[in-house]
Amino acid sequence: MHDTPDPGDRGDAVCVVGAGASGLAAIKSLREQGFAVDCYERETSVGGAWNWRHDRSPIYSGTHLISSRPLTEFPDFPMPDTWPDYPHHSKVLEYLERYAKHFRLDQDIWFGMEVSSAVPAGDGKWDVTIRSTGGGSSRVQRYAAIVVANGHNWSPAAFEAPGDFTGQVIHASAYKDPARLRGRKVLVVGGGNTGCDIAVEAAQQATRVWHSTRRGYWLAPKYVFGRPADQVNDRLLRWGLPLRLRQWLYRRTVKLTSGDLTRYGLAEPDHRPYESHPIVNSQLPYYLGHGTIEPVPDVERYDGASVILTDGTKIEPDLVITATGYRPRFDFLAPELLDTDEDGRPDLHLHAFARRHPTLAVIGLLQPDSGVFPLAHWQSVAVARWLRLRVTDPERAAAVQQKESTRPVQSWSRRRVIPTQRHWFEVDHVDYLRSVEGLLNEMGSVR
Amino acid sequence: MKSDLVRFEDWTDPVPPAAREVVSRLPEDDIGHPPLLFVPGTSSPSFAEHWLGHAAGRGFSSYALSPRPGGDLRAQVHDTVQVAASLPRQAVLIGHGLGALVVARALGRYPARAAVLTAPVLSGWAVARAFSLFSRPVLPAPAGDPPVLVAGSPDDRAVKRKALDRAAAGYGGAPLLFPGMGHDLMLEEGWEEPIDAILDWLEKQLPMPGH
């Protein structure tokens, strides 16, 4: 740096936003490609969403993985093989902390600093404004590229219902401890993994539990035939069974394991298996069978102490927990940089590469049918390789970009999913990884 | 289609855990050197006799993994990566004989800080017999592109000079040679010379604090 006239110009260094799992993977890959890296993390420790100490963490005390260990770990840094199939969130944090320490990633992380804006500065460079999380003065630094890994499970999607409610309403992000449910009448809104988990915890603690879902989902158990369900599913993929056959097998397997859930009053799924994000919960059917969870339809409105449901039923919970998910947010980037549409969905090549800004990439903006870490790892490898190729062989880089731009979206993003707010970045892990591998091969080396 | 990203075998049939035997010799002060993980082959003599203590004396935390009894190549690679990932910092992998094949395969799965293949047995009858493999094992591109050194003796009767050259060329280098020695570099008279040369090479390859 001593020969750069401007102290704010970091030369060829790359800026990484966030030190969660995706940011850590990005730092590691960029470094392997020889880049200097400055990573900014608004919290004072690594782990992002998986660090329950972070005020934006969506973790509740009972959170366990819903994908099994082999389908969740980084491909080049396995979790200990003595760990359980579905480790607790505290183990996942321990794993990320060990990953950061093992590869000395913390040397490149500036803790307690957040990025408040990033604007193109010409020639592929970025002017990044950084300030300390607690406020205070800010500074601008210039980087050769910016890799965004700010997570997508921290900004709660609001649940709107007309009317006034005299009871308490909280978003699932504010739910941490089952003690909060003890002795209360609880309505859980939302049929995703979090909604189902909280409904089960409520069944163990609350005096009465209603679980409101908008549609019927395919509820997979955590184990089938004595193996983690995702491992069994990947065996079908390994055998190359066509989607229709897998859908048929899925229906059969769910019938034989979870059973017919409409018997308990749940709605029939309005879509085929594999057309929505996998919901994995073995305990929900158990508590439905005990009658401790009462399935109910969508909420229509609040009315004083009551909640009116779409079938006209009136219930009187004293706590409503809305497990209505999260929205990705990139407040520090102008929407057009990521080609973000009016619903807040960026349009990125492989959900990672900005189409008009070759030195801007996003890591981990995916909802796969596996853990995210393996995909974030290979995205990071591809982004780092790409940034290196731009420097060493611009002609080839241009050819790769040309070829990649013709790749149809259907080849790497899910072909057919239900049209909801959350499903636009749903990917099939096998198809997705094959597409990233295609890009890596284009660039000349899989490393 | 053979894929390096889609790892069905690891996902659907993970190697079951086993008790792993790891002996270690640690230096008195941590001077910032990366840890060394020694991986012997099934018929290699122990690294613990001389090399482990010697490397610790030069400031390297040194660990040696015993091969899992009855473990196939995949299980041994798995154990190597598991132990490497359990060390506090990014490790250097050092294999001997068939253990060098295990290391060469583990390099595709774990981004080692560096790797050393001593008297490497990477193909042929010994491999076929030890692992019931009847095709030449494929050596993956090392993850993270670490420096890789091949070391051996031109007078080794088990691993000929030509095999050393070929192995080294695969990693874009030439072998480091210790004439007059046999296959078991870590046990024979003059065992200090190869381990010192390997540690010198490591110190030169890796920028370390205090050097």
From TrEMBL, chain A:
Compartments reported by the entry: Microsome membrane
InterPro entries: FAD/NAD-bd_sf, Flavin_mOase, Flavin_mOase-like, Flavin_mOase_5, FMO-like
Species assigned in the record: Actinoplanes lutulentus
Superkingdom of the organism of origin: Bacteria
One Pfam family this sequence matches: FMO-like
Coiled coil residues, start to end: none
Protein's name according to its UniProt entry: Flavin-containing monooxygenase 5
Record flagged with keyword Membrane: yes
A molecular function (GO) term: NAD(P)H oxidase H2O2-forming activity
GO biological process, one term: lipid metabolic process
Biological function: Acts as a Baeyer-Villiger monooxygenase on a broad range of substrates. Catalyzes the insertion of an oxygen atom into a carbon-carbon bond adjacent to a carbonyl, which converts ketones to esters. Active on diverse carbonyl compounds, whereas soft nucleophiles are mostly non- or poorly reactive. In contrast with other forms of FMO it is non- or poorly active on 'classical' substrates such as drugs, pesticides, and dietary components containing soft nucleophilic heteroatoms. Able to oxidize drug molecules bearing a carbonyl group on an aliphatic chain, such as nabumetone and pentoxifylline.
Family according to the record: Belongs to the FMO family.
Class in the EC hierarchy, top level: oxidoreductase
Recorded catalytic activity of this chain's protein: N,N-dimethylaniline + NADPH + O2 + H(+) = N,N-dimethylaniline N-oxide + NADP(+) + H2O; heptan-2-one + NADPH + O2 + H(+) = pentyl acetate + NADP(+) + H2O; sulcatone + NADPH + O2 + H(+) = 4-methylpent-3-en-1-yl acetate + NADP(+) + H2O; octan-3-one + NADPH + O2 + H(+) = pentyl propanoate + NADP(+) + H2O
Keyword set includes Transport: no
Keywords: Endoplasmic reticulum, FAD, Flavoprotein, Lipid metabolism, Membrane, Methylation, Microsome, NADP, Oxidoreductase, Phosphoprotein, Transmembrane, Transmembrane helix
EC number(s) from the headed UniProt entry: 1.6.3.1
Automatic annotation (TrEMBL), chain B:
SUPFAM superfamilies on file: alpha/beta-Hydrolases (SSF53474)
Hydrolase found in the keyword field: yes
Record's keyword terms, sorted: Hydrolase
GO MF terms, alphabetically ordered: hydrolase activity
Protein origin, superkingdom: Bacteria
One Pfam family it belongs to: Ser_hydrolase
UniProt keyword Isomerase, yes or no: no
Entry protein name: Serine hydrolase
